[in-house]
Amino acid sequence: METDAHHPDGVMLEAQGHRLVDLGDDAWTVGRPHPMIDPTTRSLEIEKLSQQPETGVLLVDIVLGYGACDDPAGALLEAINTVRSARGSEQPLTVIATVTGTEQDPQPRSQQIDALLNGDVIVMNTLQEAVLLAHYLVAPRQHPTPVAPPALLNGVQVINVGLRSFARDLQQAGCPGGAFPVGTDSRRQSASGGPAQATELLTLFL
Asked: Is the pTM higher than 0.70?
């Protein structure tokens, strides 16, 4: 993807259906407060997603501190709820947020995070984590191609050549096929049928 230093209207990225906008750009703040101070501009832009069902993930940042909005989480949730109500459950909107601030800010960070979580907003600790999660959610899913199991695992059949107890163990284990005791030396031939029976049984599996 090609990059450049030209960002008209604060659009930092617009490619392949994705859009990243800096609402603190001069294009948005001439004659209006920065969204950190007055979130009205951001709220209006978010509410436009009501008519953009193709947008499924919204990534936002919240900055706390003196001079900032008294309740940035509340303002954000109001806009998000407007979108979700308009779109319904068939066109969900996933919202991922980061919160920059401390407990000493006028808007304690933990309280802002709790409000977002209660409003069904995912809060990540860092911007990198938030971006990685957003990328994961929008990336095309690759469905694995079904692979037929090896023939050996598809209906195992056993010919037991040896002690009768081996055959019983196989039969008790539910092993299909020829779990037959077959003698292989002169001491077992009389009890098991001898080589002739072994040959006959083998032909059943060939």
From this structure: no
